[in-house]
C-alpha cells in the first residue's frame, strides 16, 4: 500500500485518504447497484456471477464479458507490479538488475497462469486466500507487532485487546483452513440456466403457471371444506 502511496504525484495523507474513501464508496455503490438489479431481475435464480444468469446467445452480455475480460487484463499487471516489488525488497535488497527483473516477472506470471489453468473453481482459492492471508494481516501480525514493540504495561487495554485478537486470529486461520480443505464448495459455473433452452418456460410463464396452480389449489381446498 505504501508503494502505491508513493506513486502519487504529490503524496499527502489528505490526498491518499480522499482517494481511498472515494474509491471505496464508488465500489460499494456499484456493487450494491449490480446486486440489486441482478436480484430484481432473476430473484431466486440469481447466481454469484451475474453473467452466469444470461444465455450464451445474448450478444450484449457477450460484449459485457469481453469488457470485463479487458479490465482483468489491465488490472493484472498492477498486481504483478506490486508482487515483484515485494520480492525485490525481501530477497534482492530493493533493486533488480534487468535480467532478474525479467526473470522475476516471468516467474510470477507463469505461476499465476498455471494456478488459474489448474484450478477451475475460484471458491477454494478465495477461501484459502482469506484464511491464510487476510486473517494474519488483520488479526495476527498487527497484534504480534504491537505486543512486541509497545512499551505499555501488560494491563493496558490495548495490550489486552491484542492478546485477545492474536489467538482469535490463529483459531480463525486454522479452523478456516481445515474447513476449506475438508468441505470444498461445489463449482457450478459455466452451466446455462434452464430458461436459456427453447423447450423451457420463460420467467413470465413460470410466474403465471405458479399463480394459476396456486389459485386452482385454493379453489380445490374451498370445495373440499364445503
From TrEMBL:
Pfam families: Aa_trans (PF01490)
Main location: membrane
Domain of life: Eukaryota
GO function term, MF aspect, one: L-amino acid transmembrane transporter activity
Amino acid transporter transmembrane domain span: 4-180
Gene Ontology CC terms: membrane
Annotated InterPro entries: AA_transpt_TM
Keywords for the protein's UniProt record, in alphabetical order: Amino-acid transport, Membrane, Transmembrane, Transmembrane helix, Transport
Annotated membrane topology: Multi-pass membrane protein
TM spans (from-to): 20-42, 62-78, 90-118, 124-147, 159-181
Subcellular location: Membrane
Family note: Belongs to the amino acid/polyamine transporter 2 family.
Function: Putative sodium-dependent amino acid/proton antiporter.
UniProt name for this protein: Putative sodium-coupled neutral amino acid transporter 11
Amino acid at each position: 500500500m505504501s508503494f502505491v502511496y508513493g506513486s502519487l504525484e504529490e503524496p499527502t495523507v489528505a490526498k491518499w485518504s480522499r482517494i481511498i474513501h472515494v474509491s471505496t464508496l464508488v465500489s460499494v455503490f456499484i456493487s450494491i447497484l449490480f446486486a440489486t438489479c441482478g436480484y430484481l431481475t432473476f430473484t431466486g435464480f440469481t447466481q454469484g456471477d451475474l453473467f452466469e444468469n444470461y444465455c450464451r446467445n445474448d450478444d450484449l452480455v457477450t460484449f459485457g464479458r469481453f469488457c470485463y475480460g479487458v479490465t482483468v487484463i489491465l488490472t493484472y499487471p498492477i498486481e504483478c507490479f506490486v508482487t515483484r516489488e515485494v520480492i525485490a525488497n525481501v530477497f534482492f535488497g530493493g533493486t533488480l538488475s534487468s535480467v532478474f527483473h525479467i526473470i522475476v516477472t516471468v516467474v510470477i506470471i507463469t505461476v499465476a497462469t498455471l494456478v488459474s489453468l489448474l484450478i477451475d473453481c475460484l471458491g477454494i482459492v478465495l477461501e484459502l486466500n482469506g484464511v491464510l492471508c487476510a486473517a494474519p494481516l488483520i488479526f495476527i501480525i498487527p497484534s504480534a507487532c504491537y505486543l512486541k514493540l509497545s512499551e505499555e504495561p501488560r494491563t493496558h487495554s490495548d495490550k489486552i485487546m491484542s492478546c485477545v485478537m492474536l489467538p482469535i486470529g490463529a483459531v480463525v486461520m486454522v479452523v478456516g483452513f481445515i474447513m476449506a480443505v475438508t468441505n470444498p464448495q461445489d463449482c457450478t459455473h459455466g452451466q446455462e440456466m434452464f430458461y436459456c433452452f427453447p423447450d423451457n418456460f420463460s420467467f413470465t410463464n413460470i410466474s403465471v403457471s405458479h399463480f394459476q396452480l396456486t389459485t386452482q389449489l385454493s379453489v380445490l381446498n374451498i370445495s373440499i371444506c364445503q
